[in-house]
Design goal:
Belongs to the polyphosphate kinase 2 (PPK2) family. Class I subfamily. Its EC number is 2.7.4.-. It comes from Corynebacterium aurimucosum (strain ATCC 700975 / DSM 44827 / CIP 107346 / CN-1). With 301 residues, the chain is of the alpha/beta class. The protein has a domain of 198 residues: P-loop containing nucleotide triphosphate hydrolases (Rossmann fold, 3-Layer(aba) Sandwich), CATH 3.40.50. The protein is 46% helix and 10% strand. It is built from 13 helices and five strands. Helix 2 packs parallel to helix 11.
């Protein structure tokens, strides 16, 4: 049995749904507290999310940012570089996305693309790859030395679980867009990506900027664990907030008359169909317009 198969065989049991939701909500409230501290103190936080395709990075980022103010918390998922960007210093377009005072930036994949997909798929030369492994720790040291809080997370998932998630995406029209030919290369090149990851860790897992591995066989566990680690690592403190008083609404001026509703265009109230369906006895909440044909009707046809 391979190491990956052993890992899959020892997959932890899924968390109790209610316990997960309660703990997630508690942690998300703490994230709001952390963001308030970041804004108040002018701190700068960079969170790098890396890992296998379908390892759960995106869903973790979604839960982290769900209640945060998007004005001071950004997600950066840079596309393929343009021709102009390809001629720049490799790190240049990432540096442009770094936070200013009072901001949090989460990189949904980062400059480590060079050590992962670019290395495996041959999108960079050997010289460019070696230069990256040398420069990345130096860059991160400078960021930390300048006061940026830098956290790097690697989401780890087994080959069996990754394949199951790919199949789930393929069968779900709402998530099918997440599948790309490049993603599927991670199945046939699993060992190549493993070797690239191991070599990347050797050069970039440093005392000042370590990698933190997130076990992601169960997505709910990984979300709880990574959020908890962020909160334990960022040295935030409670910041007293002035909660504004909601004023009483003044009395309407006598001369104001609202224009007739017919003068405006309104969005059709299709939601009312759901209520009518409920009154008509269809507990599913679906419209009554299209009824499923019975076998008897099909035979008649």
């Amino acid at each position: 049995m391979s190491s990956q198969s052993k890992k899959s065989a020892t997959k932890p049991p899924k968390l109790d749904k209610q316990a997960y939701e309660d703990e997630l909500k508690r942690l998300q409230a703490e994230l709001v507290e952390m963001q308030q501290w970041v804004v108040e103190t002018g701190a700068r936080v960079v969170i790098i999310m890396e890992g296998r395709d379908a390892a759960g990075k995106g869903s973790a980022i979604k839960r982290i940012t769900q209640y945060l103010n998007p004005r001071t918390c950004r997600i950066e998922a840079l596309p393929k570089p343009t021709d102009r960007e390809a001629g720049q210093w490799y790190f240049q377009r990432y540096i442009e996305k770094l936070p200013t005072a009072g901001e949090i930036v989460i990189f949904d994949r980062s400059w480590y693309n060079r050590a992962g997909v670019e290395r495996v798929m041959g999108f960079c030369s050997q010289q460019e790859y070696v230069r990256f492994l040398h420069q990345a720790p130096l860059l991160e040291h400078m960021l930390i030395e300048d006061g940026i809080i830098l956290l790097k997370y690697w989401f780890s998932v087994s080959d069996e679980e990754q394949l199951a998630r790919f199949k789930s995406r393929r069968n779900d029209p709402l998530r099918r867009w997440k599948l790309s030919p490049m993603d599927l290369q991670s199945i046939t090149r699993w060992e190549d990506y493993s070797r690239a990851k191991d070599e990347m860790f050797v050069h970039t897992d440093t005392p000042s900027s370590p990698w933190y591995t997130v076990e992601s066989e169960d997505k709910k566990r990984s979300r709880i664990n990574v959020i908890n680690h962020i909160l334990k690592t960022v040295p935030y403190q409670h910041v007293e907030q002035d909660v504004p008083e909601i004023p009483n609404r003044p009395e309407l001026e006598a001369e104001y008359v609202r224009p007739p509703r017919n003068d405006f265009a309104y969005v059709p109230d299709v939601a009312a169909d759901l209520e009518r369906a409920k009154v008509n006895g269809d507990g599913s909440g679906k419209k009554q317009g299209k009824k499923k044909k019975s076998k008897k009707d099909k035979k008649k046809k």
